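Sanity check

After download, print the first record. It should look like this:
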Amino acid sequence: MAEKNYDAKDIVVLEGLEAVRLRPGMYIGTTGSKGMHHLLWEIVDNAIDEIANGYGDTITITLNTDGSATVEDNGRGIPVDEHPTLHKSGVEVVYTTLHAGGKFNTDNYKFSGGLHGVGASVTNALSKWCNVTVYKNGKEYFISFHSYMDEDGKMHSGVVKEPLRLIGKTNKSGTKVTFLPDSDMFGNIRFNFETICSRARELAFLNKGLKIKLVDLNTEREENYHYEGGISDFVEYLVEGKNKLFSKPIYFEAEDKNFDLEVAFIYTDGYTESSFSFVNNIPTIEGGTHETGFKSAFTKVMNEYARNASLLKEKEQNLLGEDFREGITVVLNVKMNNVQFEGQTKTKLGNPEAKTLVENLTIKQLSQYFKDKKNASTAEIIVNKAKGAAKVREAAKKAKELTRAKNSAENFNLVGKLAAATSRNREKSELFIVEGDSAGGSAKQGRDRRFQAILPLRGKPLNAEKKRIDQVLANEEIRTIISALNTGIGEDFDLSSLRYNKVIILSDADQDGAHIRAILLTFFFRYMRELINDGHVFIGLPPLYRVYKKDYNEYVYSDYELPEAIARAGRGYSLQRYKGLGEMNAEQLWETTMDPEKRSLVQVTIEDATEAEKMVTTLMGDDIESRKKYINEHANFDREDEFYKNYKKDVK
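Expected structure tokens:
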């Protein structure tokens, strides 16, 4: 690609920088860990946009010992010449003016993930300080910004501390940004190496040939990501530990004007579909028009092939899309301009033209692929897999009908099991899925029956990762959950029919309880993922200990909190360790775990869909060696039993 001049006049200004500190949630969602990492992603995305448009190939991310982070790329470098209307350097405009950047027209960036132009300025505004070094046209420039409160108590955010100055000559090209998130906004949160690894790996997969180096100076850890196979390597990564039905992924790429499409997919002997789509490097976890176009095209091409190859007889009906997608792992990677994301979270593509473009390009590329006789065996594997899925679908149809909940608790699956709430207000209603009859009994007695429903589990549900849909539906515990939620599952899932705003998993704080949580989350992930995506799934946190004596009672929820609780109780206390929910009576269960005013809930989210897929496959699948490897890498086998350690020490 011929390099185009990128000067300050190319930066379009929409409005000034205002109120970022006053309302940070508008720009980064939260001032928790996720929001702080968002500051880093904004700078990384700027570097990625340079490389995705053909400028540079390397990004280095460094976590410094003072809590700051550095991102350096070898792109063109941010403009340093004077902006024609603001009379400031281009780099100063980018870092101090909201909605300022070179991405509002397609002359400078054909594709961009940072379409709103708020990234660099918001990162600067929410940092204690920010230093920017630009390597451009054989010269090195430096500018610094900081946030501070003046003597009158007025906050100044992201203002210039050291004006842009020439440092000297250089052979480098690109931009280096170092910033320290403001502890007044984010507390003592530190950057998480594993979180950054996951996103860096994903970006390297999506941008073939890109090199990302990640260094943590605090731990001296270093990771390097570079994939010449791009999304084909991505698919291989996602199916590690699964039984592949053919040796390597099917891959194609195509373009139409300012629209680039990459697709890679492979089949395993699993029973669920694993689809991952991206637009300009942004994960579209809720799908959108590009996914719709691919699915439509794929179904059409495969049915036509099956007919022409006589794999479907004349009297047989066409197979459904869900039949062809059983066992598929597919990555769909789109790069386009004028992107329209639905909602503020950029998780669903809304451009109607994307459906048509993806559909047409996919039909053309796949039809050409399957016309090649050397690919006939692969096509036959896919069709036969789909035919088997169709038979299971028919067998499961009746089971699905049985699991569709009726409007009352008289459904045979729920009689004597579900203790329903009296309110019909879905927004205020919540369902507790409780481990065991004993705990279920206490929960039924202790709940607020106006808005809390209780569903005890009388056995372990089936691990949905290892079973076909008809086998999953044959499990009584799973059928009961589906009936209680009233949404259906899989292709029939309908979120609008959900009876409860919160679905809370309540299990013992032990190995069996953790296993039950994992099984339930696997089922929701595979067959009701929208339930998680829309924020309805939670995990209840019961206490681990009770510290008490006459006129004193305190519940403790972690080993970390126990010593302080014991100190508050003073001499003569007693200590109870809860091994299970069933050890608490109704009053205690309400007070510690169910009372909305006092309880602790963890909302289940999918921050990274591909890593979630990898974890579910590893922990819940059949590959024992992969599971052992994961546990050995992540489990802390040196953790002491703090209960006995503290108890014995205090008794003495």
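If your output differs, re-run the checksum step. Summary of this record's structure: The chain has a mean pLDDT of 85.
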